[in-house]
Every structure is written in C-alpha cells, then in structure tokens.
Write a structure and sequence with these properties.
Radius of gyration: 24 Å
Number of helices: 1
Structural class: mainly beta
Shape: elongated
Helix content: under 10%
Number of strands: 22
Amino acid sequence: MLGVLSRLLVMLILFQPLFALPPPDVTETSPPVVNDDAATTAYCPTGHSMIDCRLSSDSSYGNSDGLKFDGNACTAYGRGNGNYVKSTATCRKNNGQFKVFYKDKKFNNGESGSLSCGTGRKMINCVYYSPWWFWPAGVQDDGTVDTSNSLKCETTHCQLSAICLLKSETSPPVVNDDAATTAYCPTGHSMIDCRLSSDSSYGNSDGLKFDGNACTAYGRGNGNYVKSTATCRKNSGKFNVFYKNKKFNYGESGSLSCDTGGEMINCVYYSPWWTQPAGVQDDGTVDTCNSVKCETTFCQLSAICLLKSASTVQSEPDLYEEKIPAR
C-alpha cells in the first residue's frame, strides 16, 4: 500500500501543471461613506476584468442610492441617513481568453427600464441606481437586480448597469502534425489579436500564422490538441489595422516592425518544426518582434499593426471567436 501511495504522490507532482487551476477571482472592497450622494469605488487591479458589482455584505440597500460602474470601477452612493455603505467588485484575471463589456441605460419617472446584452452575449451582473432612494420590486438588498427587464422608476430618473459576457464558439480541435485550425473574424470586423486558446499549449503546436482576419494554429503531432483564438473589433471606418509577416532562416534572428505611423498590438511565431525560442510565450505570442532566433529550417513572424492616426474609440465590444474551419 505504501508503494502505491508513493507512486501516486510522484504522479501528482509530475503532472501538477496539467491540472493547475486558473487564478482565483479577486474581491476588492471600497472604503465606507456616510454622506448623501457620497461615492465610494472599488477598483479591479490591472490585468483583471470586473465580473460582479454589488454592495458589500455589511452594507444595505436601505442606506444607499444604489450602484453604477464604469469599466473596472464599481461605485456605491450614500443615502445620507447616518449609515455607511461600501461597494464590492469581483475581478477575474484577463489573459486574453475572457471577454466582458459593460452597458448602462437611464430611464425616467414612471417608465419601466430594461437592458439587454444582445445576441450571443450573456448578462452576468445587473445593478440599479437612482439619485433619490427608493426600493422598487426586483432590487435586492445588495443593489443587484434579479432581472434587467420591467424595473419601474419611481423617482426623477433611474439607471441600470450590466456586465455582459461574450460567448465563444468552439469546434473540435486538431491533433495531427501540421494540421491547421483557424479562427475567423466575422464580416465587418478586424482582427486585433491572435493566439493559442487557453486550453492549448505552445508545446503542442508549431505556432501561429494569420492572413487578414484568419488566425491559424498548426498541430505538432505529439498527440495533444491545439486551437486558435481571434479577438475581433467592429470596423466602423474609425479603426484601422494592417498585417505584416516576415520569413527568416535557420540561425538568423528575425525582426518585424510596423514602420512609421503604425503601432504593433500583436505578434506571433511559427516554424514547421517545433521550437520555442526565447521570447515566445506559451500562447504563441511574442514579447517583441525583434531578435527572435530561428532554430529550425525556417521561421515566420506575423504582426498586427494599428494605425496611430486612427481613432480607437469603440462603438461596440470586441468579439471572441474560437473556430475550426471546414476540412
């Protein structure tokens, strides 16, 4: 029995990285405020996305005018009745695989407000605010709303705010050596990021290439699957990107730049025989597109460049696509 337990312990140690859990969510709580309309905000740390906003467990909606949020900031407002309020934000590590966006809508006295995340998106949090305290049906003690539909405003004006999760499309992965799997951006969108999916590993892939709105990963043939992930932004004519690639040979150090007027926002690496030179991350991206040494027959760098003169204001959230093309 001791020998069996020892072998199991060794296996757990050796294969621990395969079963590693994602980083835990982070909870941030704001300092208390008491005065009427006083604001207190909980901020998510850099590199995290807010997935929940509510009054802290030791606050009460009866002491607050409600909640608002803007991006990674969850703000509670005091009612001024002598009791304090605090806000709590739950934040998730954003490694390029988890996409959320935020919506809000104001409506007036007597109106019933509603808010939707739209097709292909899931609402994961909804909160309520009004400048004069009242407690309409559907608002919980922590300031969240059971449903974002048919909430009646009973004061001068009200606001609903929602956190929406972008749903992804996933198809069967590829396993065979040199097999290609491609994530395509939909019509009217530009690809702004290309990488291996979060459940893939560069050790199982020959790397990535892209051509316009197609992000392609290539299998290594070691029995483990790979998938590619593309992040796509609505192209309304105010957001302009272009794509570059460069091949270089064994022993050479490859580099790629966006030239004058362009800012590099993504760089990936490929070689027909698996290697992982310095600078190449586990998701196939490259820290810098300069001085990547080729350690096989030939290699390729591909970059996405943003035109600096272009406006980066987004009218719609980015899309997250994870697909396998038809064989």
